[in-house]
């Protein structure tokens, strides 16, 4: 396939494409998550998450996703996985925890799927 044939806006079932539209939609959420590079910001967030949401102007969808610690909902709300990793780190969510959310299973079930796949 030539590059000219590639449609980066193709519909991929079950996948949220992070494009310019999603970047604009998630700007506040991603800006907040970027702030978590600083230890002081993480501490401020943990003291009062609701005030921190407001400080960055998160909308109701983004706030609900953050409250639920639902990475998939945060992606749907415009979150970029690279910034969301900062958020996940605050709550000690591992890559396996996020993978479990993405596949709709528990973390233990997801870990077992990884082990089983490694045996093949």
Q: What this model shows, in words?
A:
It is a single chain. This protein has 120 residues and is mainly alpha-helical. It has a domain at 17-91: Protocatechuate 4,5-dioxygenase, Chain A. Helix content is 65%, strand content 0%. It is built from 9 helices and no strands. It has helices spanning 20-25, 27-35, 39-47, 49-56, 60-68, 71-76, 81-90, 95-103, 107-118. The longest helix has 12 residues, at 107-118. It starts with 19 loop residues before the first helix and ends with a helix. 20% of the residues are buried.
Which percent bin holds the helix content? 55-70%
**Using only CA atoms, what is the Rg?**
16 Å
Structural class: mainly alpha
CATH homologous superfamily assignment of the domain at 17-91: Dioxygenase LigAB, LigA subunit
- Tell me, what's the shape? globular
- Please mark out the parts with pLDDT under 50 across 5 or more consecutive residues, or reply none: none
Mean pLDDT across every amino acid position = 88
CATH topology (fold) name of the domain at 17-91: Protocatechuate 4,5-dioxygenase, Chain A
Question: Beta-strand percentage?
Answer: under 5%
Tally of helical segments:
9
The major β-sheet equals: none
Question: What is the level 1 CATH name of the domain at 17-91?
Answer: Mainly Alpha
**What would CATH call the architecture of the domain at 17-91?**
Orthogonal Bundle
> In whole angstroms, how far apart are the ends?
30 Å
- Count of β-strands: 0
- Listing every helix as H and every strand as E from the N terminus to the C terminus, the arrangement reads HHHHHHHHH
């Amino acid at each position: 396939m030539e590059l000219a044939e590639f449609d980066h806006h193709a519909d991929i079932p079950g996948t949220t494409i992070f494009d310019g539209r999603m970047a604009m939609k998630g700007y506040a959420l991603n800006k907040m998550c970027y702030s978590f590079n600083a230890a002081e910001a993480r501490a401020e967030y943990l003291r009062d998450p609701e005030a921190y949401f407001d400080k960055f102007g998160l909308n109701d969808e983004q706030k609900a996703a953050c409250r639920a610690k639902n990475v998939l909902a945060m992606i749907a709300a415009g979150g970029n996985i690279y910034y969301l990793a900062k958020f996940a780190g605050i709550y000690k969510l591992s890559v396996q925890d996020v993978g479990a959310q993405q596949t709709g299973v528990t973390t233990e079930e997801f870990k077992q799927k990884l082990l089983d796949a490694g045996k093949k």
